Amino acid sequence: MDFELPILAPSILASDYTKLGEEITTCTDAGVKWIHCDVMDGHFVPNISYGPAIVEAAGRASDAFLDVHLMIENPDQYIEAFADAGADQLTVHQEACPHLHRTIQSIKQQDMMAGIAVNPATSLTTIEPILEYVDLVLIMSVNPGFGGQSFIENTYQRLKDMSIIRENKQLGFLIEVDGGVGIDNIEKVTRSGADVLVAGSSVFKAKNITKSIEDLTKRARMGKGTLV
């Protein structure tokens, strides 16, 4: 599936759940093509968010690409459930998957795109053996578990390093970044190599969601050198 880069992916973790459909519609009306769903279990990360039912509701609200990020233990048990909920892409954590190759295979067998995420303290070398099988690599720019955290500065270098690895291996996966992305750093984040920018608070906590999306998209395109 082809998308114009960079991609802004608002995270509904920061949305008002009583207005979920309305706020997703506002996003897509402003040009958003991806909606990001952060799923937390209170075990892998110290918070609980939501499960397949909210993902399904997000899918009913629009035709946007559903980018589902599982911050959970034993993700293999829930692959089919999120496929049934309408996820277009399922991203799992390297740290939660002892049999990572099998997990990625299981995701693809459910006709979803497959992503792999790494926490800030996890070496990028740990996922090199799986890169040829994934569609996306998610570089966490905060420690997962809560929204609204500050961006960890060494993420810029990690994005550059992952871009180099991708180029050297001649692979086509997308590079996504999640955590603390806002108007003040999104240009540098994209310039460092990110293709997909997850933004939660900077979109849904803004006074004007539409204007925030427009401003973030403009800055992101400046970083990629694609602003016309």
Automatic annotation (TrEMBL):
SUPFAM superfamilies: Ribulose-phoshate binding barrel. Binds 1 divalent metal cation per subunit. Keywords: Carbohydrate metabolism, Cobalt, Isomerase, Manganese, Metal-binding, Zinc. Signal peptide: none annotated. It comes from the Bacteria. Catalyzes the reversible epimerization of D-ribulose 5-phosphate to D-xylulose 5-phosphate. This is Ribulose-phosphate 3-epimerase. It comes from Halalkalibaculum roseum. The lineage of its organism: Bacteria, Pseudomonadati, Balneolota, Balneolia, Balneolales. The gene is rpe.
